[in-house]
Structure formats: C-alpha cells, structure tokens
Amino acid sequence: MDIKKLVKPNIRSLRAYQAKEIPCRIKLDANESPYGFKAFKSLKTNRYPDPEARALKKLIARDLKVKPEQILVGNGSDELIYYLIMTFGGPVLYPAPTFSMYGIISQALGEKKIEIPLDKNFDLDERAILKEIKKKKPKLIFLSSPNNPTGNSFSSKRILKIIKFTSSLAPPVKGRGPNGTLRPPSSIVVVDEAYQAFSGKKSFLPLLKKYKNLVVLNTFSKIGLAGLRVGYMTANTEIIEQSNKVRLPFNLNSLSQEITVKTLKNRKLLRSYIRTIVAERKKLLSGMKKIKDIRPYPSDANFILFKIYPVRNKNSNGAENADALHKKLLKQGVLIRNMQGIVDNCLRVTVGTPEENTIFLKNLKKLL
Ligand code: PMP
Fold first, then answer.
1. 69: closest CA among 232, 203, 258?
2. DSSP secondary-structure letter at 185?
3. What is the pLDDT of residue 158?
4. Co-location of 94 and 20 in the same domain
5. Which is it for strands 294-296 and 303-308: parallel, antiparallel or unpaired?
6. Per the domain annotation, does 303 fall within a domain?
7. What pLDDT sits at residue 179?
8. Which of 88, 135, 164, 367 could cysteine-pair with 139, CB 3.0–4.6 Å?
9. Is 19 in the same domain as 125?
10. Last residue of a domain, one of 265, 299, 333
11. Which atom of ligand 1 is nearest to the CA of 195?
12. What does the pLDDT read at residue 73?
C-alpha cells in the first residue's frame, strides 16, 4: 500500500524540521538561556526538551512490542488527531456520537466531515459506513473503541471489516473498473484506544503487522496523567514519518517526558489504579441500575452514560429533565457532563473514588 499517495500533496513534498541533539561540551546552538532552574535532578528548565522524546518512546515501544520508529508522541492525543488530519486531509469519516475533536479539528482545518449515526445498540453501522467509503472515499476514518460518550466497545469484527475494506488487501468490489470491478478506495483507519485499558478487550495493535493503513491511538490522560498531556500513536513507519513532518519541533515538554517515563516504570501501581476504577465502575453501574427513572448504559470505559426518563412530569419534554438534573446535581456540588444535544436526554458520569461515587449516587437518588 502506498501511504504517500494518501498524504496531502503539500505535505508530501515537505521535510520534517530537524532538531538534532548533538553531544557537546558547550551548548550554544539553540538560543537557550544558560541560566535555568533544576526542577528535578536531570531536568534543566533552560534547555529545550528532547525533540524526539527518545527515552519515552523507547519505553512505550518496549511495552507495546513495536519499534520506536513506529511511535509518534503528542501533547495529548488531541494533538496527534490534529497531525493526522493535517497530514492526510479529508474527507474524515467517523460515527456519531463520538469524541468531538475528530469533527472540530476537521472543520478547523477546512476538511470535509462524514458523520455516520451509530446503530441502536451504539455499535458501528457497518453497511452505511462501507457504502459511504465507496461513495466519498475518505482519507481518514476515526473509530473510538471504547467510544466516548457511549462507553461501549464497537464490535471488533466490524472494525476489522472496515480496516480490511480500506487496506490494500481488500478484494475488488463492483464498480466501473476492468471486468466491472474496482478495488475499494484506500483510507487510514485510526482506532482510538483512549479507554482500552478499562475494557478487558483486545487491542488492535497486533494487527499493525498485517494492515499498513492502521493507526492505533492512545493516551496517558485516562490513567492518571491528564495534566501532563501525553498521547501516542502507533503505526507503520511510513505513516509515522509522514505525520512527523507536521509536528512542531518540541511538542512534548521536558517535565511531561520526565514524569511519564518515571510513572511508566511503576507499572504495578498504574495497573492497580485501573483495576480499582474497573471495580468501581461495576459497583456504580449496579447502584445506578437500582434507580428507577434512569437507564445507565453498560460501559467498557471509565465513565457511564445514562438516560433520564421523563416520567414524573408529563408536561416536560425529556430535554428539560437532563438539563435540570445536571443543574441540580451541580447545586449539590456534583459536576457531571451534560450530553443533551449530543445523546438525547443523557448525562455522563466519570468513575471517581469510592467516596465520590457514593456521594454521586446518594444525590442522584435524592433528586430523582
Ligand atoms: N480520544 C478520546 C476517545 C477521548 O475521549 C479523549 C479525551 N476526552 C481523547 C482522545 C484526547 O485525550 P488527550 O488529548 O488527553 O490525550
């Protein structure tokens, strides 16, 4: 598969900014100040960060069993979504509802968006997606699994079908080509695994070997490092090299690199936090199920989406109820996310500590 053909022409001819780290005794090449502050033993604030985040990439690569050249790190995975859309352009296809940044960044960069509604189980509408791929030839497809804000994982079979269909391994389909057939258009498929750690489902990473059009996106934001803004994407080197051209030279600051590396060395603690959140999600869901006027949806992520049934007040339309409940909870000091306008009459609560979840449940019961 020729990834270069998928890259926007203006990016194809671009060369990445070269910020080489050359070992030296006296460093006077980068207009840095010679005076700095020692935040940590090895961190000097007056020097630019490692432009390649080598130590961090090495650790991630070891964990994922890929080569460091297959990784691009970003100031949050938001930045990597930006880079991907900047590199490949649109049309950009994604299901709806999903993570809002796919659409926001596409629009900001002037690229066409193709939004395909999820089916009634919040799963991918495979037929509609494949049809739109054939018709509109998207350059990029974003699939967040588990999906934000619905919380479910998409069917792996359906994701795989989409990856296959847009890869060079796809069989010909009916069309105006030789013998009345045509190879389906190629697209980059980004599986966003921001919440994968909470799902117990298999990652799509092993499929990178087979599918050259696959990108697996991930972030440390959901597992305790949101304040550091560190995301990473894994793909075949060609996609990484092309996307790296649009990366700003020092996109990941020294402090974030340093602390992430330190944290990653404490895998046991990271894993135990994830286990605790998953256990709390179970408890929270069963607590919410006992409340009559709401319908919580099962979740593979670190949040739960729930619908409010407008049963009490016959004159109220549903919208009022989600908005009203959201406001009332906030009055009690409990802030959750109002999804009204995105998912009909729904709110989304993040799994907190056992104490926080208890307080949330108590207030929810009281208000309903
Ligand atoms: N992908 C998904 C599905 C998300 O929900 C989020 C955060 N809300 C992100 C990516 C971005 O995460 P970050 O930029 O913090 O890495």
1. 232
2. P
3. 98
4. no
5. antiparallel
6. yes
7. 77
8. 88
9. no
10. 265
11. 3
12. 98
* 339 and 197 within one domain: no
pLDDT of residue 37 exceeding 80: no
Ligand 1 center to 311 CA (angstroms): 34
**248: Cβ contacts below 8 Å, ≥ 6 apart:** 17
Task: Quote the distance between the C-alpha of residue 318 and its chain's center.
Answer: 30
The total of structural domains in the chain comes to: 2
The DSSP call for residue 187 is -
- Residues 6+ positions from 135 with CB-CB distance below 8 Å: none
Gap between the terminal Cα atoms of the chain: 55
Strand 188-192 relative to strand 214-219, pairing: parallel
Whole-number Å distance, alpha carbon 226 to ligand 1 midpoint, is 9
In this model, does residue 319 exceed pLDDT 70?
A: no
Residues 6 or more apart whose CB falls under 8 angstroms from that of 272 comprise: none
Assigned domain for 40 exists: no
Residue 108 falls inside a structural domain? yes
Can you give the pLDDT at residue 169?
Answer: 79
Ligand 1 midpoint to CA 294 (Å): 27
Q: Is 180 helix (H, G, I), strand (E, B) or coil?
A: helix
CATH number of the domain enclosing 81:
3.40.640.10
CA–CA distance, 12 with 88 (Å, rounded to integer): 9
Residues 158 and 195 in one domain: yes
Domain enclosing residue 204, as ranges? 54-265
> Of the residues 217, 239, 265, which one is the last residue of a structural domain?
265
Place of tokens 């049809």: 131
Residue 39 lies in a domain: no
67: left (phi over 0), alpha (psi -120 to 50) or beta: beta
**Atom from ligand 1 closest to the CA of residue 146:** 3
Tell me which residues have their CB closer than 6 angstroms to ligand 1: 76-78, 99, 144, 148, 192, 194, 219, 221, 226, 231
pLDDT above 60 (res 354): yes
Provide the whole-model pTM: 0.93
Please, what's the b/e burial string for 118-130 (b: 16 or more CB within 10 A of its CB; e: otherwise)?
beeebbbbbeebb
Among 298, 62, 128, residue whose Cα is nearest residue 200: 298
- How far does residue 78's CA lie from ligand 1's centre (Å)? 6
Kindly report the protein residue whose alpha carbon is nearest to atom 1 of ligand 1: 194
